[in-house]
Task: structure prediction
Amino acid sequence: MTVVRCSSESTTASSQLSDSLLDDPYMQGITTIVFPSIISAFPTYFCSLPSGEINLNSNNFTTLTNATFPCLDSFNKITLSNNKLTSVNTPRINFQTLTYLDLSSNQLTELPYSILRPTPTSLRVLDLRNNSIGQLDLFIYTLKDIDVYLDDNPIDLTNLTNTQNVTIDANSTSSVNISLPASVANRSTIIQDSTVATLVSCATFTAIESSLSYLRSTTNAVLLCTCASFTLKQIYSENENDITESFSCSNSSQLESYLDLTTESCPNAVYIRRGPCNDTEVCFKKSYLC
Result:
């Protein structure tokens, strides 16, 4: 690793390093640049660094965009740890070169979707450790051939989301490797009606079953066997299935009472409706825009 210290800087688009300087053997190994003051945008004249690696640890980046970092895909490895990143918005980038991106120790509250779509890309490692991500998104399980590090985030596995409205089909396979915080790595994902309403809204039984089966294969998913999951019990029953054959109850002592639940014993359960979805789809009460 070679470190270069700048005595002055310019972030104007017209600035550039000369070819003779780029061809200098000393330049080939530069991976860390220390600026005279911390920066919040990457100078364009360093986009052509021949090492293919840049360490911008402990600077003042608050957003990662095409404007603040105009050449993300000019590097193989980028480190932006210990900055102040709160958002990532780099649309229309399908990485062909970048394989490693370190965004650890920032202030991100959600996955950086824009750098993960479209997929697949060249990105193989995404380090999101020590951020403020509180929810696990179903989207992450659709990624291919990538390691995602989520250690030291306040993730609550009982609060799953599907912000990107992804659909999991029965043949989906996941090749993403997710590292979760130690505090939640061995906890169970609790499946209930509200979980499915969040993940799939209006969908066919096959889509609902596939999404839940996918969670079961990627996390330790168990069923909350109370009125909170009465609608799921109904849906499976209507399709000649028993959900308790696919998922264990989070509290095994509740199994028998759960099987005996009826509409009378669960008057406040989230109910399903037909239409305006087609006849094979079901909608949860919260979602009428099928």
